[in-house]
Amino acid sequence: MLTAKGKYGLKALVHLSGLEPGETTQAADIADANNIPKKFLDAILGDLRNAGIIHSKKGPGGGYMLAKAPSQVKVGQVIRTLDGPLAPIACASRSNYQPCRDCKDVKTCVIRLSMMRVRDATSEILDRLTLADMAATGDGRNVALMYHI
After folding, report:
1. What DSSP element (H or E) covers 63?
2. Are 131 and 139 within 8 A, CB to CB?
3. What is 13-73 written as a DSSP string?
4. Cα–Cα distance, 60 to 54 (Å, whole number)
5. How far apart are CA 35 and CA 149, in angstroms?
């Protein structure tokens, strides 16, 4: 499940994707427009900046902007940055694998093998979906986002 941090981060990034290239906006404006607590948003924006997804500019005319075009920012990367691995259980994770204490054989565990399929399907969708796709969906444009699992 997407956490509030992940959801707010995506909302903020979609907001930034609506700016003209090189244009910045203040965190307070993002928070107000998207009903996000400002303090929480500040922490999220810091994480996104540290990951290279956004840039910040200080001083007059400063604020936040995307580091890349919205069509180049994959939702999977954003969620992994803010919420961690996409796997529903730790033993199915590629980046943060942890064995289960109750598992007798990790290679044949049906739960792990099934959850790896869930992880792969989720990753397939989120690693193709971009901020531009999300923004287009929200503004009423007819965008075909058909995925088969």
Report:
1. strand 63-66
2. no
3. HHHHHTSPTT--B-HHHHHHHHT--HHHHHHHHHHHHHTTSEEEE-STT-EEEESS-GGG-
4. 18
5. 33
Which helix (H) or strand (E) segment is 132 a member of? helix 131-138
The 10s digit of each residue's pLDDT in 58-110 is 888 889 999 999 999 999 999 999 999 998 999 988 888 888 888 888 889 99
Largest CA distance in the chain: 60
In this structure, what token pair is assigned to residue 99? 């064995």
What stretch of H or E contains 66? strand 63-66
How far is Cα 92 from Cα 26, in angstroms, rounded to an integer?
A: 39
Q: Which residues contact 112 (CB under 8 A, 6 or more apart)?
A: 89, 91, 92, 100, 103, 106
Model confidence, pTM = 0.86
Token couple for 90:
């730790």
